[in-house]
Amino acid sequence: MRFKPLALQVLQQILLYAVLFWLLVSAVRAGLLFSQGQKHLAEIPDTVNTLYMPLLAQSVWDVELATTQKELASISAINGVESVLLETRLGQRLRYVRPHSDGEHHNIYRLDVHLNHGNRESLGTLTLYVSNTLVQREIANDLISSMAQRVLDFMALALLIVFILRRRFVVPVQQLAQAARAFVPGEPAPAFRLQYPAGVEDEMTQLLASFNAMRASINNHLAERKRYETALKQARDELASRVEERTARLDRLLNFQQLISAVSSRFINIPLDEIDGAMEQTLAQIGTFMEVDRCYLIGVDQLQVVSMVHEWQAAGIAPGAEGLDFAPLSSRPALFATLLREGVLNIPNCRQIPSFGHTQTQCDIQSLLMIRIDYLDQPVGVFGCDMVHSPRQWQDEEQLLVRLLGDMFANMIIRRQQLHALSDTQQQLEEANAHLARMALSDSLTGLANRRHFDEEKRQAFDKARRKGAPFALIMLDIDFFKEYNDHYGHQAGDQCLQRLAALLTSLFTYPGELPARIGGEEFAVLLPGIDYQGALKRAEALRQAVWDLNMPHANSRIADRVTVSLGAIAMDPGLHSGVEQMIADADAALYRAKASGRNCIG
Ligand SMILES: Nc1nc2c(ncn2[C@@H]2O[C@H](COP(=O)(O)OP(=O)(O)OP(=O)(O)O)[C@@H](O)[C@H]2O)c(=O)[nH]1
C-alpha cells in the first residue's frame, strides 16, 4: 500500500470539506445577492426620484448644465444603471453612459423631471436604462473576491494546521511507530520519551503512556510466561525423573515379586535332600538381586546351637561365615547377642561401631543387614547380607525383602528340621520293621530261618524246580537223645547246643538258594535247590561228619560220647512228588529210618 502522509490526508480532507462548504455558502450568498440585486434594480426609479431628482430638476430649472451632468453621472453610477438620457422640454438631450458599458440593457424606466415645491410643471423626461448583467457581474465579482479571500485564508490556515499537526501529531506518531518497530519483546528498555512540549498532557501523552504501559505489560507478561515455562520445565523434568524413578522402583518390585515367587515355589514340597541345595541357590539369587557381596543363612536348633550354615559370596569375596562352628549363638560375639535380643541389625557403616572390629571375625565388612529368623516366637536362625567393597544405606524395600525372605527361610529351616526328624524316625522305623521282619522269619534262639520262613521258601523252591525241571533236594535232621542231653546238661546248655548246631549249618550251606532252618525243638531242615539225590546224600554225610567233629560231649547218649544227629535226605521226584509236602513226608520217613537204624546216620 502506498504511503501517504497523514498531514496530507488531513489537508486534503479539510480542503474537500472546505470547498464543499464554500460552494454551499457561496450559493446561498449568490442567491441573497441576486435577490438584493433584483430588489435594488426595482428600487432604482424610487431611489432616483427620492435622492437625485430634486437636485436634477433644480439644475434643469436653473439651466445649470454642469450640475445637471454631475447629477446624471451620479445616477449612472448607481449599480445596475447602464445609461441615462435626459430630455428637457427645451429640447435639450443629455445622455450619460456608464463607463465600460456594453450597451446592453433589460429595463427602461421613464421618470418625469419636475420640482417638488411650487410649480410642479414637467421639466423633461429622464430615461433610465437598467441592465441585469451589471448586477450579476457585481455578484460574480463579489463572489470571486470573497472566494479569493477565503482561499488565501484557507491556505494560511491550512499551513498553520499542517505545521501544528506535524509538530504535535505526525512527528510524535512517527517516533512512536519507530519505537514500536524497535521494540523487542522481552528485552528490558527504559520508558520511551517523545520530543514533545513538557508539562502538556493530552491524547498524545496518553497514547505514549499507553504505549509504555503496553510495552511494560508485554515484557511483564513475557517475563511471567518465561517464569511459568521455567517452572513448567522444572515440573516436567521433575515429573520425568519421578516417573523414571517410579518405573525403576516398579521394575525392582516386579523382580522382587518374581524372586519371592521363584523362591517360594522352589521351597514348596521340596524333598529333604534338596533343601540345602535350594537354600544355596536361593542365597545366590538374593545376593545377585540385592547386589551385595555376601549373604548367609545360619540355622539354630532349639538350644540356639548353630545347626546349619549356608553362604554365598560375590566373585572375589572371601567367605565370612566359614569360621562358624556349631556352637550356641549366645557364645558368639556381642553382635549376635544384640541380634538375638533386637531381632534386626542394620549397620550402614560398621567402622562407626568400635566394638564391631573386635568382636566380628569379618573385619572387612563395611555395612551389614542381619535379621533374626523366628518361628512361633522362637529364634530358628539368622539371615544377613554384607557389603565389603563399599558402605551401603539399606533401603526400606531391601529390609522388607530381607524380612520376607527371612520368613520363608524360617519355614524352610523348620521344614528341614522336621524332615530331618522325620527321616530319623523313618529310619528307626525301617530298622524296627526290618528287625520285626527278621524276627518273623527267623528263629530267635539260633537265628536260622524259622518254620514259617522255611515253609514259604520250600514251596517256592519246589515250584521253581518243577517249572524249570531242575533238581531239588532237602535234608531233615534231628539231634539224637536230646531229651537226655537237656536232662543231663540243663536246658540252657541244650540251647547252646542248638545254637552251635545252627552256626554249623549256616557255615556249611552257603550256596545261593540253600536255606538251613530250625523247624522244631531240636529238628532242622536244609533246602538244597539244584542238588540231586546223590548230591544230597553227600551234603548230608558231610553234615553228619561235621557234627561229629564238633565233639560236643553227650554223656547220656546211648550211641556215642558226643552229640550226634540223624538225617533224612530226599530229592524231588517229579513222578512221585506232586507237592513239596510229599517231599517233606518222604524226608521225615527217611529221618525216621535213620533213627530206627541206630541214629548218627542218614536214612
Ligand atoms: N534245651 C532245649 N531243649 C529242647 C528245645 N526244644 C525241644 N527240646 C527238647 O528236646 C527233647 C526232644 O526229645 P525227644 O522228642 O524225646 O527226642 P530225643 O530225646 O532226642 O530222642 P530221639 O530223637 O529219639 O533220639 C525234649 O526233651 C525237649 O524238651 C529247646 O529249644 N531247648
Automatic annotation (TrEMBL):
GO cellular component, one term: plasma membrane
Coiled coil location: 218-245
An example molecular function term from Gene Ontology annotations: diguanylate cyclase activity
Residue ranges of domain GGDEF in the record: 470-603
Residue ranges annotated for the HAMP domain, each copy included: 167-223
Alphabetically ordered keywords of this record: Coiled coil
Cell division keyword on record: no
EC annotation from Swiss-Prot or TrEMBL: 2.7.7.65
NCBIfam families: GGDEF
Name of the protein described by the UniProt record: diguanylate cyclase
